[in-house]
Amino acid sequence: MDKAVSTDKLTKRFGDFVATNEITFDVAQGEIFGFLGANGAGKTTAIRMLCGLLKPTSGSATIAGFDVYRQTEQIKQVIGYMSQRFSLYEDLTVRENIRFYGGIYGLPKTELRRKADEIIQTLELGTVADKLVASLPLGWKQRLAFSVALVHDPRIVFLDEPTGGVDPITRRQFWDMIYEAANRGTTIFVTTHYMDEAEYCNRVSIMVDGRIKALDTPAAMKQAFGVDSMDGVFQILARGTSTK
Amino acid sequence: MYRIQFIIEKEFRQIFRNKVLLRMMLAAPMMQLILLSLAANFEVKDLNIAVVDQDHTTYAQRLTGKFRFIGNFRFVGYLPAYKQAYRELQAGTVDLVMVVPGHFERDLTRDNKAQVQLMVNAIDGSKAGIALGYAQTILRDFNEAIRTEAMGVIPAGRVQIDVENQYWYNPQLDYKTFMVPGILFELLLIVGGMISALNIVREKEIGTQEQLNVTPIRKHEFILGKLTPFVVIGLVQFTMGLILGKLAFNIPVVGSPLLIYGFALLFLILCVGIGLLISTISETQQQAMFAVFFMMVLFILLSGLFSSTENMPQWAQYLNIINPLRYIIEAGRNVMLKGSTLQDMQIQFLSLSGMVIGVLALASFRYRKTV
Ligand SMILES: Nc1ncnc2c1ncn2[C@@H]1O[C@H](COP(=O)(O)OP(=O)(O)OP(=O)(O)O)[C@@H](O)[C@H]1O
Ligand SMILES: [Mg+2]
């Protein structure tokens, strides 16, 4: 019950194809959980089931104690989600995007203004606050999208490849933001392709072809596979080859 | 309900920021209203008429004379016989030939009854119909004139001229007056049905729909918030159309403006409902566009806006029972031009209301936050 996420043999089939195959894992509250896997491993499918966007085929899962079959609306109250596709409105300004999503989450108007000021200040977006989001560089957009996903102070936030296509410096800044959120008690569930980012997580799982092949802390995992980087672990598991 | 305002606000911001869309929704319909009303004008001018006079009497000449002084006709001269008349019609040099048979005057005075024959080139069916209609009106006038004259001379019975080619048409009808209300409502289909469907599907395409679906927003909040702006813009467009109709074509609103707006609102809600329904069955804007066009073309062709429905086959008539455009055009024309009341328009009102309920129920059933 203290688990932020808990799944048991959670499965999604698309016709004959099993995208997510009986995955079972727990994520503790306040944890930074890395959800790794190659392209097409089934990460997005799993996340979408956990967020109540996709009905599972079988198995069970709870998010903050809420059931993914029956309590999707309660789940939506307590989670934030940053999808793999960019999800802000390009034809709205920074401020308008914050106001819109905050409003949708039911924040009162005074709170909306406060939130907007706070986000704009933290992200140092003061000069572009009233510019259309379309005009921002990708890194800024991604950081803004993350802040917007946190606008209602969710207990758990799902980040689906938040740093895809972003330069290393911005990725660093992004991870600083993730740590700040985690320090405030938010559970982080994050997928990534960058193995250096996997090192920043408390625990990681590695998915291959719809199944979870390994789940542990980065240190324990490296030790178990006898390699010195997460990339080495990933090579062995996901690509079936060793870098050594 | 608190959340709805944020959706409405966002939609308006996006719409006003998209100048092309705005023009499509407000300026383009006004141009269409003017162009379509002018183009759909069935008034026919400069009809060439020739006469085959086989009677050579005063009455025959007076009848012929009638055609010389009517604006729509141009009297091109006498032809000696059928054969030439036929050739001229075929060549297209005349549009209408009136044959006054021998004994026309004699039959008219003796039997109170005579016949003339009208020949038209029916290649252009509607022009032929109109030409006949005009001619028939002239004959009727002539008929009236003689009857009054003849009262003293011929004590009993009625004087009557039969036209062999019976064809009813109403040449007095002003087509612009007739077209404008129809086009006004037809245009609402575009804002209400097409733009709204494309708008929702666009969010699916760019991915913001998924982001919305992961928020606690309720189905009805999304639907209301998303569709209200299009209803409002539709009403603005409708108002502009009414004003333009008045200024450009002097189209009156004889009936209650409240009733007209009531019908416009009802129809707009139906249109956005259809737009929402289409958006739930389309994954891309292309698909939505195709679905909207399919529906619009069907509605418009069957509605009788540009063609008459009476000659359509039975199945088309049945299909028309579920054609909302037909009902709204009937209601619009009758209320605007004849001043019909809600009582007169009961059938239209109830049919449209039924469709609104059906479409909205189906659309909200189909709209899912999960896939
Ligand atoms: N709606 C769907 N219908 C059919 N197949 C699907 C559907 N959604 C995903 N898939 C398939 O399921 C598999 C897993 O997809 P998923 O998007 O979960 O992978 P992923 O791990 O997120 O990959 P990536 O790193 O590329 O984002 C893929 O082969 C994909 O083609
Ligand atoms: Mg993915």
Q: What is the arithmetic mean of pLDDT of chain A?
A: 92
H/E element sequence of chain B? HHEHEHEHEHEHHHHHHHH
What does the overall shape of chain A look like? globular
Number of helices, where a helix is a run of at least 4 consecutive DSSP H or I residues of chain B: 14
Q: Approximately how much helix is present in the residues of chain A?
A: 25-40%
Order of helices and strands of chain A: EEEHEEHEHHHEHEHEEHH
CATH third-level topology of chain A: Rossmann fold
Number of helices, counting only DSSP H or I runs of 4 residues or more of chain A: 9
The helix/strand class of chain A is: alpha/beta
Subcellular location (chain B): Cell membrane
GO molecular function, one term (chain B): ABC-type transporter activity
Keywords (chain B): Cell membrane, Membrane, Transmembrane, Transmembrane helix, Transport
Membrane topology (chain B): Multi-pass membrane protein
Put the structure in a nutshell.
Chain B: The chain crosses the membrane at residues 20-40, 178-201, 222-244, 259-281, 288-306, 345-365. By secondary structure, chain A is α/β, with parallel strands linked by helices.
Name the descriptors.
heterodimer, A: 244 residues, alpha/beta, Rossmann fold, six-stranded mixed sheet, 9 helices, 10 strands, 36% helix, 27% strand, B: 371 residues, abc type-2 transporter like fold, 2 domains, five-stranded mixed sheet, 14 helices, 5 strands, binds adenosine-5'-triphosphate, binds magnesium ion, ABC-2_transporter_component (chain B), membrane (chain B), ABC-type transporter activity (chain B)
